[in-house]
Amino acid sequence: MNRPFPWRLALRSTGFWLAVVIVASQLLNAIRVALDPLGFSAYMGLPLSMPADASWVGVYGLRALFLGTFAAVLLFRQRFKGLGWMAGVAVVLPLGDFLLAHQAGAAPATLIRHAVIGLALIAAAFFLSRLANRTT
Question: Which of 11, 37, 76, 99 is deepest in the core (most CB within 10 A)?
């Protein structure tokens, strides 16, 4: 039996809105990679030394497209618990991005951005878990 989507509850939830931001940012990153892979690699703190290596940035774009689309499906299907787990496990991605950018000598602002993304994912995991418990 399907339960009705708890719109009122979800729209007042920090977890729901953090999930919306995560979905939007991942899909936006995929679009940015498609439009300007060299610019995006510099934005990530990993500028390419050879433009011919831009196909590697495409790997990031495909990752972002998959994650954004999968998270959107979970959000649409009201799978808040699964989305919370996804957000929690996904913390390894900005951590890895931080370490790679640090090794490449990225600017402090870039490193801070990666750290903030990791913290936002931790917060999303927490709040989505709370939302899941309230909607089951």
Answer: 37
29 — phi, psi (to 5°)? -60, -40
pLDDT tens digits along 18-68? 999 999 999 999 999 999 999 999 999 999 988 888 998 999 999 999 999
Tell the residue number behind the tokens 């009122």, with chain if given.
Answer: 8
What are 4-11's contacts with CB under 8 Å, separation 24+? 5/78, 6/78, 6/134, 6/135, 9/131, 9/134, 9/135, 10/78, 10/80, 10/131, 10/135
Query: Which tokens is 7 given?
Result: 């719109």
Residue with tokens 């689309």: 69
What pLDDT was estimated at residue 1? Answer: 45
What is the DSSP code (8-state) at residue 78? T
Query: Residue 86 carries which side chain, given as an amino acid letter?
Result: M
Distance, in Å, from the CA atom of 50 to the CA atom of 21, rounded to the nearest integer, reads 32
CA distance linking residue 85 with residue 116, whole number of Å: 18
